[in-house]
Sequence to fold (225 residues):
Amino acid sequence: MFSSERSALTKSERTRASLRTIALRSFRERGYDATTIRLIAQEAGVSIGTTHYHFPSKHHLVQELYLEVQEAHRAVAGPLLETTDDLVERLGIVYRTGLDGLAPYHRFAPEFLSAAVSPRSPINPLSTESAPALEIVLGLFRTAIDGAKHSLPADIARGLPDALVLAHLLLALFWVYDRSPGQERSFQLLDRGLRILRGALPLARVPLLRAPLREVLDLIAEVRA
Fold:
């Protein structure tokens, strides 16, 4: 941030930005469990009350982390999507850059998963609180499809992003448990899935299969809703 930008911020805004920066760095370096409101307040040189004023709970800071990760995901994936109009290649770009962006957090991923696994958890990826971050991923898949050359029926193309987001979450779950070097098994699983998808997508044009596929996509959309 340039000095002119810093001076344009109010004291409250600067405090909030500092707390956010400290928390996100702590999540990367210490993980979920060791990052506490008290620790963040101490490092920022402010009271716990001030920290709670800006971020009522650690869950609110996790949402900031989700947004940062997905905004970075979008920034990396966007230019790469411009390099091809092949649908499966474009989907692969979204998936791979998504996994790459998670890499700094793999050591502590089980901690985040434990905190997020409950359906009632505000940091569950499908929670209302997590919707802004997940909407970025959904937007990336929409962009990948809209900018590709394909012959998918329009209703299938509209419904596909929700299914791709669900697959993204399932792949991330596999990635959490993946202890292979560089999580190479996760990328191998992705490559196999993309090959299957390349063979399966043309079947969406077959009238006999289109209706059941449409029902599956509608069901996935309902699950996400």
About this structure: The domain at 61-224 is CATH 1.10.357.10 (Tetracycline Repressor; domain 2). The first helix runs from residue 3 to 8. The chain is about 75% helix and 0% strand.
